[in-house]
Design a protein that fits this description.
Length: 478
């Protein structure tokens, strides 16, 4: 299925917005995760210091210090605060051997405590490492440790354990508003992209339609382009050239060569439209570079964006190639020489799939009036297309014969896959193609070239049997 320029532009804008939202969301996620870890550390530190202060007071009392710690209601109350502290699991005092002296869960007293990673290592890690730790399946337990040294005596340490699983719950709650905002941005991007495509591509459609009408010989064709920047100058130039052509046609002074020169001049002016169309492309490419600097080089989103931007740029270049023909230099051209010049290129293409090439153009044929370079390029396009239509081999026949004293017929015939009837009337339309990687410009250029030479081109095709193009050109008069 062929995607139109408008659809491509919408998809590119949406992709850029999605990539920006995804990048900003990732950075926001990492920032929130960093804040959660820092807050959790501060809360655990505060609890550990509270336990230390209470234990310091109890050390001044007479009696066994371990028994005093185990029986003190105030200390037990502080330990119980671990369950209500930010992301806390438990708090405990352990001796130098790791045996629990007091614990927020009294059933654990006397047991050896499990050792978990120090929360300090997670605090020192980067934002993205914190995010990965928080989203680790099953969660992680981290500890804040504070040595319990009173005077010169080392009684052990204070342990406050926290859970990354509880941090994840807070993080997900914080992300819900951001997810809603991202969804609204994506919906807004569809609307903006649609309007942008309409606004950007409308002048191209108008110019293409105007050129097609001029090519059909209509007189007095005018364009109503936006009255600003390059479009205003392009519209005025087009209208002036159109009016001059109409006047010369009315006076019988215009020829196809003159039309070619006028269209070439107009095409040079129309190149200014590239600036208007390329501005969004340049902005997209800048954003791509910014995203590339913040993410890995093999990021799939960036690859898709770059590919679509290149395809859109190719469409614009194809339009400019069509709208900016070179001025013709008409002379007497011998078709046998044209065929011999293009034969090496055709045979190289034909050799890829085993296509047999035959040429029938007697040297004594009268010359035609043509621009040798443009005519050769047009016939070469037809011949290469024919070779590509025979992926399993076949026969390509190039022939020329005089059908009257004033007309020459050139035939390009293949035994390839053929063209369906529904596509036959569209093959000369600009941007129409049935090839996955085709641009839809080649046959449109062929059609324009033949008609600028005051010629005609017809096509006959039977699906599965082959296609024949017949080009009629005027024979050069003495």
């Amino acid at each position: 299925m062929r995607i139109g320029v408008k659809t491509k532009q919408i998809l590119v804008v949406m992709a850029v917005v999605f990539a920006v939202v995804a990048t900003m969301g990732t950075l926001s996620l990492a920032s929130i995760a960093d804040g959660l870890v820092q807050d959790t550390r501060a809360s655990a530190d505060l609890l550990a210091k509270g336990i230390f202060n209470r234990a310091s007071q109890l050390a001044l009392d007479d009696g066994d210090f371990r028994d005093t710690l185990g029986s003190d209601a105030g200390l037990q109350s502080i330990l119980q605060m671990s369950g209500s502290s930010r992301h806390g699991q438990y708090a405990a005092i352990v001796d130098v051997n790791g045996r629990i002296i007091v614990h927020s869960d009294r059933t654990q007293v006397g047991r050896f405590i499990s050792t978990y990673p120090n929360l300090d290592s997670l605090v020192a890690a980067g934002p993205f490492a914190k995010t990965r730790a928080i989203f680790t399946p099953g969660g992680l337990t981290q500890e804040v440790r504070l040595p319990l040294v009173l005077g010169t005596t080392d009684f052990g340490s204070i342990r406050v354990a926290v859970s990354t699983l509880l941090m994840r719950d807070d993080l997900e709650d914080a992300l819900r508003p951001a997810a809603v905002t991202a969804l609204l941005l994506l919906i807004g991007s569809v609307i903006v992209a649609t309007l942008l495509a309409q606004w950007t591509l409308r002048p191209i459609h108008l110019i293409r339609a105007g050129l097609a009408r001029l090519g059909r010989g209509e007189a007095g064709v005018t364009l109503a382009l936006p009255q600003e920047g390059e479009f205003e100058d392009l519209g005025e130039s087009f209208n002036v050239v159109s009016a001059r052509l109409a006047k010369e046609q009315a006076e019988g002074r215009v020829s196809r060569a003159t039309v070619s020169r006028r269209l070439a001049a107009l095409g040079r002016v129309s190149s200014g439209i590239a600036h208007e169309v390329k501005n969004p492309l340049n902005a997209m490419q800048i954003h791509l570079e910014l995203l590339r600097a913040q993410t890995s080089d093999d990021n799939e989103h960036i690859k898709v964006l770059a590919q679509q931007a290149r395809r859109l740029d190719a469409v614009v270049q194809g339009f400019l190639a069509f709208a900016k023909p070179d001025a013709m230099v008409l002379e007497a051209v011998h078709l046998d020489a044209v065929f011999q010049d293009m034969l090496p290129v055709v045979e190289a293409e034909a050799g890829k799939t085993g296509v047999n090439v035959s040429v029938r153009a007697p040297a004594d044929l009268p010359p035609v009036t043509a621009d040798a370079g443009q005519l050769q390029q047009a016939l070469l396009n037809l011949a290469i297309n024919a070779c590509q239509a025979m992926p399993k081999g076949g026969d390509l026949r190039l022939a020329a014969r005089a059908t009257s004293a004033t007309q020459m017929e050139i035939t390009v015939e293949d035994t390839g896959t053929g063209i369906t009837q529904e596509h036959l009337d569209k093959i000369f339309n600009l941007y129409f193609t049935t090839k996955p990687e085709g641009s839809g410009v080649g046959l449109a250029l062929v059609y324009r070239t033949i008609h600028l030479h005051e010629g005609e081109i017809e096509v006959e095709s039977v699906p599965g049997k082959g296609t024949t193009f017949r080009v009629t050109l005027p024979i050069a008069q003495a």
